[in-house]
């Protein structure tokens, strides 16, 4: 702010002299005393004066400036913009303040505030223009850093509101890649790879072929990042001229894009003090990423592990709210919701839904004889046996200590009953080992069918329970030890 005020003060002093119609020689005497970069251009566009501060500011020599035009110093498009602005200031005899992004001979871009004022002669005619320069690159950089920090925080706040929607890590990272394109202006493609046993495995991507996500894998020493980052695998790094890499192996860009990866901002991400992922933010042009992008990458290195941990905690909490901790099956609350959904589907499709009630025989005997740890092993063994013999689309839940329930969309009740009787024979002949103890188990079951026997969940469960207890009464209640 202080420098900006100094710039305006310098221009005010110059403008006061010009309004008094001073000669050019007197004006030059004034300009030489200013520490601020100043240049004077005649109405015909020839640069006829600049002070030493201007030469140092732009890294130019006196001969490169004096007697030349802006077209000799700047890129043509940029010089044309200045020509139009300068002409307007001289024709309208006004003062103008404009911010510009300038590239001097391939150097890094600089943000410049240029203050312009017309030089008016004793006849009231504009004969030239004075330009006072101020480098605002640092303040612009700080402003952009604040903007990207805010944008990244907004992105993760939005992601935080959607954590329950992610089924796995791929969904979590795909969402991040879709969002951060708003921050990294040079990014056209992106991917996330896990690092395990020095192997990089692709788990998420943006604008790469989706069918390669599960298939793409490469040893880290065979990847293009190894030669560039092997001594600094923890630091975000920009890599250019990627297509010049020998034996380049990268995922295939989506055919719709029709471009090649030329540069990449590689961001290592640690989790629990271990290097776990690499984010590859890619561009189809070289030098697409600057120091602001590195700043943003460093911020992502901090934010992603935090929100990944929140995501995992949310997933674990959701898992506990939906699933039985001991068996991993649905709990009763979640099962009731799924039951309603399955009934609606069967009603829509005019199909039958079979409800199976199970009771694990002899659990109390196992608990009393061998202890509750053995009883837990008995429950888990039954669960694994049961789910391994049915389809993934079939639903099973643990609804009590030794009570289970299942849902199958099928019209063939007889085949199912035969299968359950056969499975019971197999289970009864299976030896169950816990530590040095050996025992065997069994189960009772009963079924009900929608819509032939009932149409509501409570009615169907009640009928299945009654049939299960009838089955239990018919069975020989023996538990081999």
Description:
The chain is α+β, with helices and mostly antiparallel strands. It has three domains: 2-135, Beta-Lactamase; 141-321, GAF domain (Beta-Lactamase, 2-Layer Sandwich); 332-474, Alpha-Beta Plaits. It is 43% helix and 24% strand. The protein is built from 14 helices and 17 strands. The protein has helices at 2-19, 24-32, 52-58, 62-65, 76-92, 137-160, 169-180, 225-229, 291-322, 332-349, 363-370, 372-388, 413-428, 457-474, and strands spanning 38-42, 47-50, 95-102, 110-120, 126-135, 189-196, 199-206, 217-219, 237-239, 263-271, 274-283, 353-361, 395-398, 403-409, 432-434, 437-439, 442-450. The protein has a six-stranded antiparallel β-sheet with strand order 8-7-6-11-10-9. A five-stranded antiparallel β-sheet has the order 2-1-5-4-3, with helices on both faces. Helix 6 packs parallel to helix 9 and helix 11 packs antiparallel against helix 12 (372-388). The longest helix has 32 residues, at 291-322. It is elongated, with a radius of gyration of 37 Å. It starts with a helix and ends in a 7-residue tail after the last helix. The mean pLDDT is 86.
CATH topology of the largest domain: Beta-Lactamase
CATH homologous superfamily caption of the largest domain: GAF domain
Q: What share of residues are in beta strands?
A: 15-25%
Spans of at least 5 consecutive residues whose pLDDT stays below 50 are: none
What is the strand tally? 17
Coarse shape: elongated
Question: Major beta sheet, specifics?
Answer: 6 strands, antiparallel
The second-level CATH architecture of the largest domain is 2-Layer Sandwich
State the strand order across the main sheet.
Answer: 8-7-6-11-10-9
Q: What structural class is derived from the secondary structure elements?
A: alpha+beta
Average pLDDT: 86
Individual helix count: 14
Task: State the CATH class of the largest domain.
Answer: Alpha Beta
Share in helix = 40-55%
Number of domains: 3
What gap, in angstroms, lies between the N and C termini? 86 Å
